Amino acid sequence: MEKQVILLAGGTGLIGLRLQDLLLSKGHEVRVLTRGKASASPRRFHWDPEQYEIDRDALEGVSVIINLAGAGIADKRWTSSRKKELIDSRVVPTLFLASLAPDMPMLRHYISASGINCYGYDHPDKLHTEEDPFGTDFLSQVVEKWESAADSFLPFCPVAKVRISVVLTEKGGALETIARPVKLGFTAALGSGVQWMPWIHWKDLVDIFDFIMDHRLAGSFNAVSKVVNNETFTRLLAKHLHKKMWLPNVPGFILRLFLGEMSSVVLEGVNASNRKLRDAGYTFRYEDAEKALEKLDL
Question: For labelling alongside 158, which of 152, 202, 239, 266 has CA 20 to 30 A away?
Fold first, then answer.
């Protein structure tokens, strides 16, 4: 594919840094939006979407926008103000970028991060596809508003939305939180342990963004390698860390007491299909959770 000028929001996070490396290695020009006023890197450009501020030099010649911006879902307890932040941190930057689309006449593609927890939990054994409706729980509402904001780009270019599952990576993200008690020897499944846990290795996730860009795909895509239940994943993680799984399951009411509504992230699960990406021609690097964990230095 020919060289692209890519505007990357959320490019300094867990996936953004690795995506930068891949895109640069393929000869693309990558411009990273940052809230900092100054930067030592010529590839970084200031923006503040809440204040409608952006270094307009970043917009010149842009052909692709990749937006990974959004506050961490499980970083803090879901108070009413935190819920608003989780929505606003996704919707506000997206709508601001869409308002700038008329100033980017070369724009040919908008690619947004999204979330796999968008189908609700009413049918836990259903294999969800991208055609299924959004659920009514909070996370589903977040994703629905997020993707609706992304569709603001449709008058200007095709729009793709990558519904990300639990990312397996050495540092940061959900896996680091999951692995912390296991490393200390406190190994136990959560709740019933039978709830589904969709996962993806970070290399596959980065490749998927690149694949969608290269093939100019549009629509929503489940970025999930495979799905295992919580107990199975906990056992595999304990084995990888050379720990024994000896504690009884952590009761759901304990997690609800400490985490509140956010406990749904670990107590509920989604079974999702990756058939749409496969049919588009993407081949996953990692489809076995145990082998994927073996590639990580946790």
Answer: 202
